[in-house]
Amino acid sequence: MRSAAADTAMAAGRTPSALAASAAFDLVTLAQARSGQATRAIARGWRDGLGGMRAERGTRTRGERKAAAERLVSFREAFHEQRRLGRL
Description:
Elements: H1 2-9, H2 15-33, H3 36-56, H4 62-70, H5 75-84
């Protein structure tokens, strides 16, 4: 559901970047997990998230989306933070 969350939280121009970062994280997760269960769970998450993006878009104000877009960091920074936290 990160895709729906990304679209809800991001200004329209930043949504593709947020989706790309989410996809990169999922690819890293799949490379580490290497299980059918993880693959199915991630695929369901993308299916549900992409399907829910339109409905979720209006749940945040333009200002909230702009503030979220300003907090977006590179995949490298996010990956290092997840590693530091022991999540990857």
